[in-house]
Write a structure and sequence with these properties.
By secondary structure, this protein is an alpha+beta fold. The chain is built from three helices and seven strands, in the order H-E-H-E-E-E-E-E-E-H.
């Protein structure tokens, strides 16, 4: 007759369990995961800038002062001017729903080449107490001449023969 060897379980103290070490790693991993999620959330909130139209900014009134904002509108024809130093520009932007144009000043930095009458402008900066938008960055949307153009087909195989 063959004897069967019995395997005994390791002795445990009351109140302990085999996964005690694993639980420590799980808790540490959870804490690290929560810390990373918190840092990502804080980082995203710090760099988020709201995008408003001129009429939406005017509707906010005094509550919009000294907040970092992005404002979009079309450049009012004839309003673009350069200051005496040549380093800054001032202009007005408006949208179809705006009651009055928004005056924008921009000093220093590169001015977009495409800037001109009726071009859509996005200005990033703060609204001061006088109601002038002091921009720290100005972007001009490039009008596309090809937006409504029909695509043309070309037979490249015939062109190489």
């Amino acid at each position: 007759m063959a004897s069967v060897a019995s395997v005994s379980e390791p002795s445990r103290t009351p109140g302990s369990f085999a996964g005690g070490r694993n639980l420590k790693f799980i808790i540490a991993g959870g804490v690290i995961g929560l810390a990373v999620a918190y840092l990502v959330l804080v980082g995203v909130q710090g760099t988020t800038v709201y995008f408003l139209t001129v009429s939406e900014l005017q509707a906010k009134g005094l509550t919009a002062q000294n907040q970092l904002l992005r404002v979009s509108g079309n450049l009012v024809p004839g309003s673009l001017g350069r200051d005496a130093s040549g380093l800054g520009i001032s202009f007005s932007i408006a949208d179809t729903a705006a009651t009055t144009p928004l005056n924008v000043t921009y000093k220093g930095g590169q001015v977009p080449d495409i800037i001109g009458d009726n071009i859509e402008i996005v200005a990033e900066g703060k609204l001061d107490a006088r109601g002038t938008f002091a921009a720290t960055n100005v972007l001009a949307k490039c009008p596309s001449r090809l937006a409504d153009a029909e695509p043309t087909e070309r037979d490249y195989a015939a062109a190489t023969n």
